[in-house]
Amino acid sequence: MAACRRCRTEMVRLFIHPKFPISLNGNVMHFLGLGSKAAQGHVVRRCHQSVWSSHSTVKKVGVDLGERKLEISTGKLARFADGSAVVQVGDTSVMVTAVSKTKPTSSQFMPLVVDYRQKAAAAGRIPTNYLRRELGTTDNEILTSRLIDRSIRPLFPAGYFYDTQVLCNLLAVDGVNDPDVLAINGASAALAVSDIPWNGPIGAVRMGLVDGEFLVNPTRKEMSSSTLNLVVVGGPHSQVVMMEAAGENVLQQDFCHAVKLGVKHTQQIILAIQQLAKECSVSKRTPQKLFAAVAEIVEYARQLASEKIYAVYTDSSHDKISRDEAIKKIRLETEELIRERFPDADPYEVMESFNTVSKQTFRNITLNEYRRCDGRDLTSLRNISCEVDIFKPLHGSALFQRGQTQVLCTVTFDSLESSIKTDIITTAVSGVKDKNFMLHYEFPPYATNEIGKMNGMNRRELGHGALAEKSLKPVIPKDFPFTIRVTSEVLESNGSSSMASACGGSLALMDAGVPISSAVAGVAIGLISKPNPENPSEIQDYKLLTDILGIEDYNGDMDFKMAGTNKGITALQADVKIPGLPLKIVMEAIQQATVAKKEILGIMNKAIAKPRLNRKENGPVVETVRVPISKRARFVGPGGYNLRKLQAETGVTISQVDEETFSIFAPTPSAMYEAQEFISEICKDDQEQQLEFGAVYTATITEIRDIGVMVKLYPNMSAVLLHNSQLDHKRIKHPSALGLEVGQQIQVKYFGRDPTDGRMRLSRKVLQSPTATVVKTLSDKFSIAVGTSNSQASNAS
């Protein structure tokens, strides 16, 4: 048997001629790489021309979702990929390709890589970096890639360890329809029309809630006023494969109704993709090997280790470290005996045999005995302790401990200028320009007693931080005068650290005096299920676990994280490890999480029940200063000199609010006091108020510049530029042409302040005409007559 190098279909090798070995597959001749170059070129051309002609017919299906139509097509673009699909709603289009190798890797997990890319050209923009190319990945791209990954990963066959890559390319965006949901449907279609083994298809929709009305795939404008942003990914038979949501205290009944509506609409998309796959007539490839433990070795491992494993998992005196050490010891002993009994066994088969026995033992204890390894019943929380105001110099801090999961959260305030400015592509795609609230999640290796590199944020940290941020964002006041940064550092981890970050972040915000509308708590719900032997897609028995441990997440079928207030839900993320969940289990998980959430909030309220009335004394200060236009030039200084000096010397940040108002952010009250003194000094009232419009004054030249001279009308004033154009009726290039020198006194006429920039307007040129003018000298306090006018000069005040 052999396979064509591009279309990958298997063929029977036929020797038509000794020099031209070829294969026949239907009406298409495939060259195997032998024979003369002439024959080689001839046969290759026939092969690929046939491939192109067979795929050149574009297949297209459409789905009506509310007022918009979703179109899915294949057969036109990227035909060398194993599967390719283009999904379009409105004028937003996403192309998704799927390619999987035909030889397995040496990894012991599904090597799936999903990459979502926003192209600047799709939004009609050019990247603003120095190379004008797409560089690196943005947070939005990574979060969307994770969304797609979690949607398609559960449906790959168990033991399919073949390198697989799904690439999502944003072709065009209209600024109305979000492309992330389209990318999920595109990945489903690309895998469905390919020969890659995959138990799909799936369908995805976004649900919004505007004025009590549920919207399917709402536009960006509709989402701006929606209190719910729910992405539902459904599988065949109305099952839930993945969910991710953010909401503004959405009531439980409204949320459950949105989930049901979303799953209902996903079934239309699934039917359309199934029709598309049927029209393409693609048969799934048969993998060389699906990695799984050999039954004989598993049985031997069960005889050796099942009782020992059971004893460890039912001993509630163990903590995470001691339990892992005990299981590790049993593993090493068992694997050594297995290798003696089966010397030819693959290392993976030996290891997986023990894993299978360990996982089955753990799950049977929960399913059959209603017990958990730490001694809790199925719905009990771990012990929770909370502490706030841990470190006095910080603007806000809290320590949240739940079992062996410990999270330290801190709050830092900064000026609104420090808000996150999104890149131009994300702004064009999602409409988000900047945000003044952010939560950053850190997971150092010591949190799990490991050693690792501290080389910046990874995708997992970004995803967990984004979930905790969505949990807290709805309770942050929209008119808060600072940018808020919450940092969540996981000091110990034994499950549900992202929800612990939401709890700790809520406590830290209240400790910092942020007037949040309500406290927020989060919890993770797990699942242990037993499939129906006759129909593996159905669940015969299951148990839901409240506040899961790390080992329960690892050996379980679901990690269902939900956060919210006493009133409703603010965020949810469901990671499912089996092909799908019935709606009944989803509804039960939401109810169980709601009960646990309220219990956690009761414990948190004992540490701090509401936000502090006042921020800490060493906290930042924001004040507004009104600067009249007449003084703005002096306040800003030449070329912004005074502002830069003020910010450098005091550490404050100044931003202009409107024509006469400036906002000053100071990191400490003492810095604000210094800034106020500085501003008072440079903007203090002076003799300028005595100047009269149209009067003539004697000015002293303090500096000669190329563009004019700097003059003072009185000793204490700031020097003012008298431009060359106002020195004389003649056009001059330099003041020296008129013989002007530093220290020389000249007469100028005062025309008030420029209404646009507040600069003082002076002119010497107008005095060169024979018009009679009044001269005023502030220093001498007397008046003289000038020119041919008979008018009497008034005394200088």
UniProtKB/TrEMBL annotation:
MF terms per GO, please? Answer: 3'-5'-RNA exonuclease activity; polyribonucleotide nucleotidyltransferase activity; RNA binding
Q: Name one GO biological process term.
A: mRNA processing
Q: How does it sit in the membrane?
A: Peripheral membrane protein
Q: Where in the cell is it found?
A: Cytoplasm; Mitochondrion intermembrane space; Mitochondrion matrix
| Keyword line | Acetylation, Cytoplasm, Exonuclease, Hydrolase, Membrane, Mitochondrion, mRNA processing, Nuclease, Nucleotidyltransferase, Phosphoprotein, RNA-binding, Transferase, Transit peptide, Transport
Concerning SMART domains, the annotation shows: KH, S1
This chain's protein is named: Polyribonucleotide nucleotidyltransferase 1, mitochondrial
* Species this chain originates from: Acipenser oxyrinchus oxyrinchus
